[in-house]
Structure formats: structure tokens, C-alpha cells
Amino acid sequence: MNKMIICLTFFASIMLTLEGLAQEASVAQKLIPKQYQKQFNIDSKRYLEYTNPAVTASGEAFNIWRAAEKRRYTNRHKDSLYSVYDSLNHLAWQHKVAFIKQNISSYASLYYFNQWFIRSSKFHPDSLQSLFLLMDKKIRATPLGKSVIASLKRKQLLQLNHKMPDFSFWTTQEKIERVVSLSDFRGKKNVLICFWASWCGPCVRNIPFLKQINLDYKEKGLEIVSISIDKDSTKWLTALNKYNMPWLQTCDLPAYTNNNSMCTLYEIYFIPQYFLINKEGKLVYQSILNEDNDDYTLLKETLNKVFAGL
After folding, report:
1. Which among 96, 91, 118, 92 has a CA at the least distance from the CA of 44?
2. Alpha-carbon span 230 to 243, nearest angstrom
3. DSSP state, residue 223
4. Kind and range of the H or E element at 228?
5. What is the Cα 162 distance to its own chain's centre?
6. CA distances from 209 to 100, 103, 226, 300 (A)
7. C-alpha to C-alpha distance for 66 and 71, rounded to whole angstroms
8. How many contiguous H segments (helices) and E segments (strands) does the chain have?
9. What share of the chain has pLDDT > 90, as a percent?
10. How many Å apart are CA 31 and CA 144, to the nearest integer?
11. Does 279 have pLDDT greater than 80?
């Protein structure tokens, strides 16, 4: 299991307090169909009361494990602490699943399914679909329900050995603006897609690693495409000048994607994430699906297999 990814997903989901979640639910209420709003308040409170104890305990265990990591305790201590966190995190997810199964007609079930389950890498799309289909048809037919259906369909496509969805983007590679499409490399090159951001510490730390990958495999037929999820193009362009990454660069902003979000297309909720697509356009590696480690051992092994004999 990639502990760096766990860290990112954890802070994206678990570290919100009960009060913070309640405030978020209150803001989201404006988007909830009027006929569900009153019951949503009641059910949302029940959901938080039911799940928060396990979520909080999981968060405390995670913080202790991270402290052990930073203090460079022995692997035995770190592993035992991680086991405690993993067990509590599993319990938290069990509570979330149980609430949905016990409240299939509640809009809160759909809301929190979209909030946590859709954004998690913990579940296979088939498992998510099965849980979603337990919900009342009227709930699934709401605008949010339809959004979840679209997300589930995208997740089904983003599996190993599946052909990846095409996309086009503007790049300023070598200071020349041009439009590039993923399909441009079909039958010609393998493509490593890297989702990152200038503000993401792990992403920036991985840049030397990506430079080495580029050096080792570019001449063999690898094309790297870095896609920033920065919301400020100035910060992104400043980072490009600072880090000098000699491969295709773009940003997931409307001006660079023709209003088609690549984060939405590839279901990106946390970074960094890496997708290796072969010449046939099929996904042969994905950092989350492959459960790669912090050194990306499996990515390097996959690259070696892809380019074996060249």
C-alpha cells in the first residue's frame, strides 16, 4: 500500500472535524432538492454521530503513526502503529457502508456516498456500483444521483488493460503553443500521464525521479505528459520555470483544455497520480490501482517490461 497516497487521501477526507462536516453539510443544503432538505438535516446528524467516533479514532492513530515515521522509529514500531490505524480506518468505512445500507431512501446516503466513496480509491467500481444501486430510485434520479452515475461510468473505464479516454490540451512546450491529443501517440509511443500541482510537496519531490525516467526512456519511445491541477496559471508557469521539466506540460484550466476537465475525465481527487498507457492506448499501470510504494518500484518494473528487448 502506498503510504504517501494514504496520507493524501486521509487528509482529504478523514481530518475534517464533526463541526466542519456539519458546516459543509449546511452549505451543501442549498444544493439539495427542497423536498429532501428537512430530512437531510436529521439524517446527516445521525450519519455524523454514527461514523465520527471511528473516524476520529482512526485520525488519532494515523497522526501517531506519522509521528513515528518522522522520528524514524524501527519498522516494527511503525508497522504495528500502522496496523492500528488500518484497523480503525477499516471500521470507519464499515460504519459508512452500514449507514447507507440502513438508510437507502435517505438523501444523506447519496450525499455522503458522493462525498467519500466516489473520491476514495479503496473500492473497486463494481463494489461502488452495487452499493449505489441499493439506494432508492428516486434518490438516484436526482441531479446529484445522475452525477454519481456519470462518475461511476468513468471509473469503470479507468481500469487496467482498458483503453483510456482521449483528451486534447494546449501546451507551451519549447515556448511554442500547440494542441496535443493523447490519440496522437497511439501506435507510436507509450505515455506516462502525471497529475500534479505546484503546491503539492510529494509532487515536487518526485520531479527528480520523473527527470530520470525521462532520461532513461525518452529515446526508447516514452512520452511524459504532466497535467497540473493548479487553479492559478501564474503559479503553475512559475513552477515550470523553476523546476525545468523537459517534457509536455499543461494545466487543467479551461484555457488549456477547451473547457474539458482532465481531472474529471480521469477522476482525480488527490495527487500525485501516474497513468502509464501503452502504444495501443491501454492502461498498463496506475499508481493507485497497482498499490505502488513511495519509491514507485512497480512503475519502474512496468516500464522495464514495456520496453524489454528494445
Report:
1. 96
2. 15
3. E
4. strand 222-228
5. 18
6. 42, 46, 13, 10
7. 9
8. 14, 7
9. 65
10. 9
11. yes
pTM of the complete model:
0.80
List the beta bridge partners of residue 179: 170
Sheet with strand 273-277: strands edge to edge:
248-251, 222-228, 190-196, 273-277, 283-286
Please determine, for residue 175, whether its predicted confidence score (pLDDT) is greater than 90: no
CA–CA separation, 158 and 181 (whole Å): 18
Cβ contacts of 36-44, under 8 Å, gap ≥ 24: 36/107, 36/142, 39/106, 39/107, 39/108, 40/106, 40/107, 40/108, 40/111, 43/103, 43/106, 43/107, 43/108, 43/109, 44/108, 44/111, 44/112
What is the grid cell recorded at 94? Answer: 464499515
Check residue 251 and give its pLDDT.
Answer: 94
- Would you say 266 and 275 are in contact if contact means Cβ atoms under 8 Å apart? yes
Query: Cα(158)–Cα(34) distance, rounded to whole angstroms?
Result: 34
Which residues lie below 8 Å from residue 190, measured CB to CB, with a gap of 6+?
A: 217, 221, 222, 223, 276, 277, 278, 279, 306, 307
**Cα Rg of the chain, angstroms:** 21
The mean predicted confidence, pLDDT, of the chain is 85
The residues with which 273 forms a beta bridge, in sequence order, are 195
Long-range CB contacts (< 8 A, 24+ apart) of 184-188?
Answer: 185/223, 185/279, 186/279, 186/280, 186/281, 187/279, 187/280, 188/221, 188/279
Report the candidate in 100, 193, 117, 182 with the shortest Cα–Cα distance to residue 152. 117
